[in-house]
């Protein structure tokens, strides 16, 4: 669209430097315009374009996936300033040749409180009644794999105690209601309205017994980090940066209903595994507190600011 390109050109001309978040078509336009105008620019890599398009659902998107990845790979390779939300996944797919590189998540959580893990261990030890599975994600985002989780729970149903599956988010849940109904889980799947970040989400997570992250593609999922900070036992898929947050034996292949169902059965029926997962997740989440991340963020962005 010529109008969009003109606006992008004016924006770049009016500023001393540009921050481009990728993958995004607008982000790539900003990179190109910054290069053309010889303006300093930094790239924030927050996801994998190949995985995003390949799992979009349409044939055209799957065809475009390799080209989208090529365009982003080329932009990142030539950039002088690049920051990644992962520690290794995005870096390996979209490396930067000679630039200043930062690795820090765009997630930041409050300082941890030992009462959180104590309450979680007590909850696991005294568990009774229905088991609560939880997931945070937009209902309309197919790549979150919410439908995969519903199908996996249906497959695992006969090997589980009575359970509920709660999804916290917003968007159009029509498709997911249909999936739940087709799986015979319409009475067990609940779409909870979104909450303000912070204590409201923490309270919701404290009611979850096992957190699910069945994504088809991810950068580094904020919701999973938040769940870990509440000492939630968790399982997920090997998509994107999830493998940096969970051990290999807690991961299924993206989109693989059978593998996810087996993981759910294994974890849900093993209190010692739930306790081990809760402890590990709580300890590891300390790496994503504001205190830990702020210094690394500030150092990177100060360096970029000085170049402008």
Number of strands: 10
Estimate the global geometry from the Cα principal axes: globular
Content-based structural category? alpha/beta
Helix content: 40-55%
Biggest sheet: strand arrangement: 7-6-5-8-9-10
Largest sheet: 6 strands, parallel
Number of helices: 13
Mean pLDDT across all amino acids = 94
Low-pLDDT residue intervals, each spanning 5 or more residues: none
End-to-end separation in angstroms reads 29 Å
What string gives the helices and strands in order? HEHEHHEHEHEHEHEHEHEEHHH
Over the alpha carbons, how many angstroms does the gyration radius reach?
A: 21 Å
Approximate strand percentage: 5-15%
Tell me what the structure shows:
The chain has 308 residues and is of the alpha/beta class. It contains 13 helices and 10 strands. It has a 6-stranded parallel beta sheet with strand order 7-6-5-8-9-10, sandwiched between helices. Strand 5, helix 7 and strand 6 form a beta-alpha-beta unit. Helix 1 packs across helix 2, helix 6 runs antiparallel to helix 12 and helix 10 crosses helix 12. The mean pLDDT is 94.
């Amino acid at each position: 669209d010529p109008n969009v390109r003109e606006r992008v050109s004016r924006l770049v001309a009016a500023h001393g430097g540009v921050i481009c978040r990728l993958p995004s078509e607008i982000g790539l336009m900003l990179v190109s315009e910054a290069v053309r105008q010889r303006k300093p620019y930094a790239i924030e890599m927050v996801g994998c374009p190949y995985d995003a398009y390949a799992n979009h659902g349409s044939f055209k998107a799957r065809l475009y996936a390799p080209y989208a990845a090529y365009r982003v790979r080329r932009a990142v390779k030539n950039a002088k300033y690049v920051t990644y939300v992962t520690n290794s996944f995005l870096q390996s797919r979209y490396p930067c040749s000679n630039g200043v590189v930062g690795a820090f998540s765009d997630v930041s959580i409050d300082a941890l409180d030992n009462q959180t893990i104590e309450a979680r261990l007590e909850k696991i030890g005294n568990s009774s009644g229905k088991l609560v599975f939880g997931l945070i994600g937009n209902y309309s985002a197919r790549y979150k794999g919410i439908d995969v989780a519903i199908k996996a729970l249906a497959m695992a149903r006969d090997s589980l105690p009575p359970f509920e599956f709660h999804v916290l988010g917003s968007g159009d849940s029509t498709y997911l209601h249909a999936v739940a109904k087709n799986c015979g889980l319409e009475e067990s799947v609940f779409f909870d309205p979104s909450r303000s970040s912070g204590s409201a989400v923490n309270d919701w997570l404290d009611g979850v017994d096992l957190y699910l992250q069945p994504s088809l593609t991810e950068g580094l999922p904020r919701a999973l980090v938040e769940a870990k900070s509440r000492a939630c036992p968790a399982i997920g898929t090997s998509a994107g940066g999830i493998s940096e947050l969970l051990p290999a034996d807690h991961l299924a292949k993206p989109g693989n209903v059978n593998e996810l169902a087996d993981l759910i059965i294994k974890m849900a029926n093993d209190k010692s595994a739930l306790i081990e997962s809760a402890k590990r997740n709580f300890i590891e989440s300390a790496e994503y507190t504001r205190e830990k991340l702020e210094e690394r963020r500030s150092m990177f962005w100060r360096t970029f600011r000085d170049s402008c």
